[in-house]
Amino acid sequence: MTTIMLPIALFVIIFGMGLTLTPEDFLRVVRSPKAKLIGLSCQLVLLPLVAVALALAFRLPGELAVGLIIVASCPAGAVSNVLTHLAKGDTALSVTLTSISSIVSVFTLPWIIGWAMDYFLGAGAAVVLPFWKTLGQLALVTILPLLLGMLAKHARPALAARLARPANVFSMIFLAVIIAAAVGGTENLAEQFRRAGPAAITLNIAAMALAFFVARLAGLARPQRTAISLEVGIQNGTLALGICLGLLHSPTIAMPAVVYCLFMFFSGGLVVAWSNRRAAE
Q1: pLDDT tens readout for residues 32-77
Q2: Interval 174-191 mean pLDDT
Q3: CA-to-CA distance for 207 and 196, rounded, in angstroms?
Q4: CA dihedral 69, 135, 238, 72 (to 10 degrees)
Q5: Which residues have CB under 8 Å from 122's CB, separation 6+?
């Protein structure tokens, strides 16, 4: 599962992400930068910093701290686009932010994970993870399939459109499978949930709340605030768990992502209900 199936699944999932992306996604930021730059700043900068602060504040063990930072450093997934649409948010903004964060994160993830491993899993850590080997594996499993997906979309756009939906469905199904694998492979499961749960849940709530209020302070309209809040709070859990289990081979590191993934569907549903009620007033 961890040495063969997970890397293959990660490759397929990120290839599917690439099928939805074009260079046009970057140009959208130049044409209308304000909302997109605020959303990307919250997603790519603010969220990882909050994760580091929470890991220190909750005094998480090294492996759980790394796991929390990994889930915070992943891009948003297709689920955020669906929830934004249901919440009557700015769906076009959500899709654009997902596209750009997906591209940027495959370059930033290796370095953020490398720093987290070095800082939280230094000498004497329970698990020693090879930095350069992990960095190379992550780059291979993320950058290469993303570029191949974008190339396929450019060469065969009709075929790419047909394959994008099955890839998203596969991602959701596999998310459930690897959550089960992570839970089943963790020793002292109740204790790990107890230690990882409060920080992961706090991260999700803080991510949505901070993104919403930053967007509000910037003077963005309610649909844009809703889109940015969901975009920052709903992470690509499949990617996070795939990295923790497939590349780092650690169910313990995966535990914050498990809790986060389970809770974000609940919090996302609350945002949809709240946003629809406000829109009806």
Answers
A1: 678 888 999 999 999 999 999 999 999 998 889 999 999 999 888 7
A2: 60
A3: 17
A4: 20
A5: 62
What is the rounded CA–CA span in Å between residue 146 and residue 15? 5
Contact in structure between 192 and 64 (CB atoms under 8 Å): yes
Alpha carbons 158 and 241: distance in angstroms, whole number: 30
Nearest to 106 by CA among 64, 147, 154, 45: 147
Distances (CA, A) of 240 to 109, 217, 220: 10, 30, 30
The amino acid occupying position 114 is G
User: 89 in the Ramachandran plot: left (φ > 0), alpha (ψ -120 to 50) or beta?
Assistant: beta
Q: C-alpha 65: how far from its chain's center?
A: 16
The dihedrals phi and psi of 76, each to the nearest 5 degrees, come to -70, 160
CA distance readout (Å), 138 to 107, 133, 186? 9, 9, 23
Distances (CA, A) of 137 to 101, 188, 244: 20, 29, 12
Residue with tokens 């992306």: 21
Q: Residue 82 corresponds to which tokens in the numbers above? A: 């669906």
- pTM to 2 decimals? 0.74
> Rounded mean pLDDT of 19-31?
64
Taken in order of first residue, the domains within the chain and their CATH numbers are 5-276 (1.20.1530.20)
For residues 214 and 228, give the distance between their C-alpha atoms in angstroms, rounded to a whole number: 9
List phi, psi (to 5°) of 137: -60, -45
Half-sphere exposure at residue 217, Cβ-oriented, CA atoms within 13 angstroms: 9
Label each residue of 101-128 as H, E or C: HHHHHHHHHHHHHHHHHHHHCCCCCCCC
- Please tell me the distance from the alpha carbon of residue 63 to that of residue 78, in angstroms, as a whole number: 27
